[in-house]
Amino acid sequence: MLASKRRALLGLLLLWGLSTLAGPREGVPPPDVAAQSLPPPIGHVFLILLENENFDQTFGPLSPATFLTGTLVPQGQVLRQYFAIGHRSLDNYIGLVSGQAPNPDTQNDCTSYTDFSGSTIDANGQAVGRGCVYPPAITTIADQLEAAGLTWKAYMEDMGNIPARESATCAHPPIGSADRTQTAQSGDQYATKHNPYVYFHSIIDSPSCDANDVSLGQLTADLASVGSTPNYAFISPNLCNDGHDHPCIDGSPGGLVSADAFLKRVVPQILDSPGFSQDGLLAILFDEADTDSSACCNEPTGPNTTSPGLNGPGGGRPGALLISPFIAPGSVNDTPYNHYALLRSVEDIFGLAHLGFASQDGLSPFGVDVYDSSGTPTPTSTSSATPTATSTRSPSPTVTRTPTRTPTPKPTKAPTKTPTPTPTKPPTKTPTPTRTPSRTPTPKAAATPTEAPTPP
Fold this sequence. Notes:
Blueprint lengths: L1 H19 L12 H4 L7 E7 L4 H5 L6 H7 L4 E3 L2 E2 L5 H10 L5 H4 L4 E2 L3 E5 L5 E4 L10 H7 L4 E5 L20 E2 L22 H4 L3 H5 E3 L3 H4 L9 E5 L18 H17 L2 H6 E7 L33 E4 L7 E3 L3 E2 H11 L42 E2 L63
């Protein structure tokens, strides 16, 4: 059995390597876009979600996040046209894990923890109505992973620090009550609104929630071996360390300064872990931009609000950073992506159907513009030297596709919605074949990046 799995993995690696070996030259269409759209054999995805920064504040030359820009950026790829999908925080978190669009209550961060009112699911997989805790028929990527026999965990900093405030696992207020974690408390800066999984009955009504929605303190032990590392890890710092508060209740500066200190403490543990070294992808994201409500990728408004960004069509452009053995270090990418596109990309990695607006026609998942076309994993180290030249990957020509989607109950009524104009129209992509990843160790070898990059 083990030998057959190894042969299957080697076959997948050979197919992916051959399909991407030539790589697209600048301005030259690749010979087989469909083959090159197959994700590399990533088996462990890590998401770290920070708060409320415009792209230039985070990645610009005056950024106070010196570990992020000086140490991490040279090791990965900066997505310079990465957009959030709404304002304020919670609607972005929910969209990132379920593909559900904002509604008036999630846009207001659900100050009261109420059930979602409405039983209709429209043709786009959107729950029609308003409220906070979605019915069991609305699922998340965590549900998908469990159904596929894969593992997930959400790591919440400070959760359970004060037991009278919230529990140490799967922490959320009682249904119908006020959320007392909206603001930080001395000694406990956990925020329910930054824990998206507890807004779904499919999660909180299952024993899986207590097992997998846990305190950040468990991360170090889980990273110790490939077997104990979840296939999908969602990491949410506390209200200070995610940059939300500034200054913080404990006297820390907050903002990007405290967020950068958090990354300096946690990211090296991830990059040095056996699971990441074998086949990992780390995405460092921001839930929304600070003063920007623009959108990309023809983002739909959804059935429950006419303005996902409150004052505009989206959540603005915070940018993002991706690090992986399968991504050329020090590269930059101007292909437009958003939270729905990232969800779709992760679903493609694990061979899952597309939830909600991750199934939007023409939405581009990560392709050869993101993944290193050499087909060979590149070692990642937190001590990488700063690159000396700038290089930008050119998006590959694509075609529109109609994706598969998790079946949803037949809608009683499909509401009419008008697509929101967006500043940038993204390229469309050839269908990405789905697959079930193998956790067999992936051969590693040093590779020379296809580009010689610098921080953007």
